[in-house]
Amino acid sequence: MSAAPDFDSAPWYRVYLPVGGWALPVDVAPPDNRQSVVRKYPVPAGEDHGAQLISAHVLYTRGLTAEALPPQVGRGGLRGERAQLPFKNWFVKAYWCATPVEARWLMRHFKQQSSDILDANTRLNGTALRPPWAVAPVWVVPAMTHQSVQQVATTHLGADAEGIFETSDARLWSWFGLDDNPQPENCFLVLTRYLPQPMPFIEAGAVPRTDQLQELEAVARGIDACHQAGIAHCDIKPANVRSYSVGAVESFVLIDADAVLRLEARTDDIRLTLPYTHPGLTAAIRARRPITAEVLKAHDRYGFALVALGAVAGTATADAVIARAQRDGSPITGDEVRVMLRSAWGTDWDGVIDPLVEPFDQPYDAYGNWSAEQWITDVLNGQDGPTSLDAPPGPVDAELVRAHRAEIDEVRRTLPAALIPPDAPDAVLNATVLVASRVAARQYHAARWPWLVGLPVFALLLVVTIIRELVS
Predict the structure, then answer these.
(1) 378 φ, ψ (degrees, to nearest 5)
(2) DSSP assignment letter at 271
(3) CB 262 within 8 A of CB 297
(4) Which pLDDT score is estimated for 456?
(5) Residue 141 contacts by C-beta under 8 Å, 6 or more apart in sequence?
(6) InterPro entries attached here (predicted)?
(7) Where is average pLDDT lowest: 115-124, 268-277, 391-400?
(8) Which residues, at least 6 apart from 273, have a Cβ–Cβ distance to it below 8 Å?
């Protein structure tokens, strides 16, 4: 949207979202920008039709949870799930199809997605309103008839229904410029929670950002839950990983569910984003080869591997290999990513690098028993760090001693004199400080935020321990 809707005067469109046997009222603002975009959606074969590629005009707007409670709640108020009138802002897409039949097929496809996503979220103990979620829940709402709009439409400020009835904006089809040709059967809405914040990736430096990889553990569990529920997301990319906060739960979740497909879907096409698609899959789609469950799950793995690469190594690294693959048309390989990461981090971090690049050596059409959550665990388990830290520090040259005189003096001032005999070699002390600082840096990137306050103490204790060994 190019500008915010006029909340004070614009007529809104009320819908009711079914949530566990009751209805949640949401007021939807007319789109500020009435210039729709045309999107194409692969719809798998159904009982009454073969696989279809349906075009739809799409408008984007947003909604607010209505301030008035549903009448069936009653004077007792909300309890349990209902008490979580959880979030106020909604992201809304309005769809118009050329024929009622196409609208019905596309709406049925989206409703199937919504149901399957609820199943995946249930496997994580999430509900329609309460996380954790594998994919942000979605609701599909058909357009109301002219009479229904008169009865339920309202502005956010509660203008009377008659005033809304006289304003054509309250009718969904009018948003598409169809005032003279009402087509309620051709229109519907899709609503999901408004999650504006993408995952904030901080560029990596001389060490892997494993702390950011840990934040993706929730997304990994969500991907596995989707596959267990018999669906694939099909459009995993950084822009579709969003942060959310509901009550005491703060985490990350996949959004943009309109590409979701059932693993058993009979289709030869996928709604996808090319930079995050294996070239082998792109070729298969062009050749109209059948898309199997293994292909769909492997497609999720490829996109997630690129998201994780951006988290650990920085988006510049991920963008570089993506650009190379697009330019040459050949798949990203584990070897090319390994070379880039070793160049940035050195070979001491092979424990992280080797499992991190493993998905790029997998074929586009095979998945087996691969698990996103287990893969994240394997990468994190490799961060035990540089093998050189396991060896005792060796002597260093005089130039290095002079360069780190401040650290050496700080150790002498901080530790009890009994621990540092006057004849202890400066080179040994200096090497000890360097080892401590490197380990502390590694712990910084591996630790979760609540533990960071203990790092100075950790480094000091490590210095004490090593010096005890060296001078004993």
Answers:
(1) -65, -40
(2) -
(3) no
(4) 47
(5) 15, 16, 17, 188, 189, 190, 191
(6) Kinase-like_dom_sf
(7) 391-400
(8) 235, 237, 303
